[in-house]
Amino acid sequence: MRVLVVEDEQLLADAVATGLRREAMAVDVVYDGAAALERVGVNDYDVVVLDRDLPLVHGDDVCRKIVELGMPTRVLMLTASGDVSDRVEGLELGADDYLPKPFAFSELTARVRALGRRTTVALPPVLERAGIKLDPNRREVFREGREVQLAPKEFAVLEVLMRSEGTVVSAEQLLEKAWDENTDPFTNVVRVTVMTLRRKLGEPPVIVTVPGSGYRI
Name one GO biological process term (predicted). Predict the structure, then answer.
């Protein structure tokens, strides 16, 4: 899952990003509304965690622009105000969810994952395919009842492949969904991660390489 965190309190923004990365999400961070508009114009995000009170361009205007562009991106709006009227106003702008500060990180994570499931055709919270069961909320993977311990990026790649439901996912798409914008696009990190993932999942192999196209399960 690819997430953009937009928050002018840099310590909070970086803390949220670090926490979401530990949950196997690819996370980019910006600290003002102008930078947010630049990022959403370049990258495809599943979820934008958007502070409402931003410098340069207000969070309301960022939200409006995302809606105007017809993006499938979901918006989780954050604000220091917990008033019902503010929550209603934020949702009327086009935000998909609203979370007042301060918040519990576990709740933020749950809301981000719930919104991420709504960017595509609805899928169950626990994904199952080819004898593999993947639970994004618990960060658990089982194959034929055997638990498989995965690093965050391995988990992220497997989740993208599971969500594709048998369609081919290119290396570029995996790089887009499982790594952030600081990753070198010419690196072989996708190939190496898929190789490690295959080994950990065991025999017979379930990740198929489609020459010249990508990977599928």
Answer: regulation of DNA-templated transcription
